[in-house]
């Protein structure tokens, strides 16, 4: 099991805690779980019992993230959560499937369901990494997001129709909102027919319609809750933000009433949890809450030590052999502090950067998710140095001790409470003496001698009926010596139906002495809860029923047939006097009927035989969503020796709107017309998707040179790269790119005419011709330099064909990990091949120049100096990337694009605004980047003398 110690920072960090009571609990040193973690705990208890579940990452991609999350902290935190869940799955033996979706004005599935494992975690975190650039959406549409999430989860629910263990990790940076300024795409929403988003009044109407769709009785919130889906909301806001911004989200996730009112009718069990956060560290701790579902945190706080380890700064925890592994997330409230792990033998491991250590046989790995946070993983409980008192400490090397620290220490044991008789013991309504014996097992099901647990252990059990009634099975917590003793429970008065056997195991590690000889109490682990689904059957002699009914999927209005499994002996019929209870539905008044609706036409099943009760679900209208409810079924002995008994059986069905036939026919006709072109278009599409500059850190340098015969000169001396060259990082390569801005020089990907092969990169600058280094490859009539897609560790030249024949600019592109050998190779190529390439380039460019005579009808000569020539310009001041060949572009700060994929027209000249500056009247404003060429004749930037990145 895992527990969490989370210390407190003052002020804004309180926003990292969960909901209302969490502010007083998360920062306190207590062994009790947060009540506001109820949603996460439910998911964990379900996982512990069923050993499988699904987590859907539902991530906001609206434009406001440019301001609220400019460093993509949501990506760092979500990747951390995925990695921690994978570790949790490996530690506990649970099978956890993960999917990733995003939302703004639409809902997009980015990654389908995939089981978390060491082999799949990379592809999942890679998908989450793409969210860095997914921040251009117009709306924050909660209804579209949750409706899409509902469909994604429904596709993965258990085949038998039973509720599974499903959780939505829902992240957003704002309240539900809709854009009207220069809106791109549809101005209407399906759920608000007749309303166009043209102004504030329209936004209010659409917001009200969306809120109603989610929160009405039986709406999307109730549909998710009645399907067993747990919703965890994480809201990112500034510390100065309006605290009511996320009230609707909070109400959706938790069922609590807020300033926006109530949301949904189903509030028990607790639907989920809500976490308000304000920065990267809060976000990491909020996501960390989800990383050990069902094992809530023990919280603590500490100060910092000055230069050396001290007692006041220690976050202590005690390990013994009942603990399988330890994961730690710790943070300080300011930068510059050093996290230190102190082992029982007194050895100190300083964790200033990512690495690993062997501490008396214990494997300790660590990394830094943020500048103030450290994540630690400890394994090998069989090591001689494992058991004893450990501590995590933050040290202030500068002598300033005024700091607060917090830690989240997950101590993972592999002990679970269990009921060995679950496969052999039948629970019957009315039975007054049901014997039940409990045990302790490891996560892989192996029995453990409870009495031999090193520290303390106590087990409790209770039965929770579908109506919420709790029936104690153990009157008190059973000590580890009593756990296997037989318990007796009475089911008198308990109605037949589905129920939950809730078992709780509390463990405290054995106490240990620290290096000073002081006895330190064992660590109280968070209770390990297991919620085991069970069925309370009808009394002995009555027929037994299946646990649920799944009607399947219905397109449009109409009806669906389903069947309820029966095991004899007995007589079964639907209770026609009690209409089906609808818990949630996207349409009004669905009904359930059966041809066997009275005792006289009941379905009779002989002793030991099986049968089915047929039922029909009728849906009067079409909609998208889920119908969940309960139907009353009557059961009785065949011989009539006892009175009939009513059993409530849950049912479910998925609804979707019927296909628009006219649109479908139109699409079919278009497909017939375009059919022959589709294979060719697919080839071009594949080529376009694969033609991108690799996402790898890149440095660039622009250097003026002169050719004297066969010698290349830089500032009058033989050409050489200098120590302060290649320190400027090229922005825009956090993901594969199709265009880059080098400060007045544009790199853009071209496909070429052939549908096969790969694309290439063209380097261009206004008023200059260009050629690739070493090969001299060019493209177009200007011409421009033609480079491979992997532009790293290459170079090219730019030259004014109407300027001095011996002058050029060399542009060097070096990977951030380029070695001194690569640097020497580039330098050698420039010295040996540039004179030849410059001569060839000037010859290619000269014939293509327009006539500069200035006669009537002539166009201005961009390279000439005649009467029609434009004023002299800086040839390296700017360059506009071109749009992709399919008419779509990727918005990237500084890319030169206007909003939503519309490329700017023309190539800017020196003195004009650079691409990436906001354009009046556009929504939303783009980030401001670019500017005149910062490189002077020497190729140095701003006169600075930065460190040589290749220096050894």
UniProtKB/TrEMBL annotation:
Residues 1-33 form the signal peptide. InterPro entries: VWF_A, vWFA_dom_sf. It comes from the Bacteria. Residues 54-290 form the VWFA domain. Pfam families: VWA_2. The chain crosses the membrane at residues 664-686. This is VWA domain-containing protein. Residues 845-952 are annotated as: Disordered. Residues 893-920, 930-952 have a biased composition (Low complexity). Keywords: Membrane, Signal, Transmembrane, Transmembrane helix. The keyword Transmembrane helix applies. It comes from Gordonia asplenii. SUPFAM superfamilies: vWA-like.
